[in-house]
Amino acid sequence: MNDHARLERYIADTRPRFEDLLGQMVEIPSISMDPAKAPDIRRMAEFARQLLTDLGAEVQIVETGGYPILSGGWMTGRQHPTVTIYNHMDVQPAQEPEWKQSPFAFKNEMGLYHGRGATDDKGPALSALFGARYAIEQGVPINVRFLWELEEEIGSPHFAAGLKNRSAIPRPGTARSGGSLCR
């Protein structure tokens, strides 16, 4: 099987899991600007941590003095370059009159995903995660690190403090593989 066919098969095989996970993520109302949603922010952080762990990544929840940052990924070797992928898991409140459905109820209309966070930024984060995992499974010599924050929608007031907490952020140097997107 050539590389293109292998990639197409991977996409087809993982799409149901992707859609299920995206639905679960969208249904967590992780609205960072609403203090009443703090438990949902924590639930989103724990969900994301478990997702990364289930895919074989090493991950830490980095406390910041505000909402946490998740840092994790796969370190395949010290000699390999490292790419860091940033996304955010918090969302805006959904008060716009354009919403014709509950914003925190995921809806899949023939591959068009609806729900708060589906395209900003939970869906793109999940896409990057699935793509990175595929690269690791294919033996691409690269370290991949994710930084997922939960305060982007309020201006990232604690992001710099979280990055300074270097002891909690995994560094290249230990190889780790495992986990599979196709279960």
CATH superfamily: Zn peptidases
Strand count, sense and barrel status of the largest sheet are: 4 strands, mixed
Using the CA coordinates, give the radius of gyration: 17 Å
**Total beta-strand segments:** 6
What portion of residues belong to β-strands? 15-25%
State the distance separating the first and last CA atoms.
21 Å
What is the total domain count? Answer: 1
**How many H/I helices?**
4
Mean pLDDT: 90
**Overall body shape:** flat
Biggest sheet, spatial arrangement of strands: 1-2-6-3
The helix/strand series, from N terminus to C terminus, equals: HHEEEEEHEH
Specify the CATH architecture. 3-Layer(aba) Sandwich
Which parts are unreliable, with pLDDT below 50 for 5 consecutive residues or more?
172-183
CATH class: Alpha Beta
Helix content: 25-40%
Task: Assign the structural class, choosing from mainly alpha, mainly beta, alpha/beta, alpha+beta, or little secondary structure.
Answer: alpha+beta
Q: CATH topology, anyone?
A: Aminopeptidase
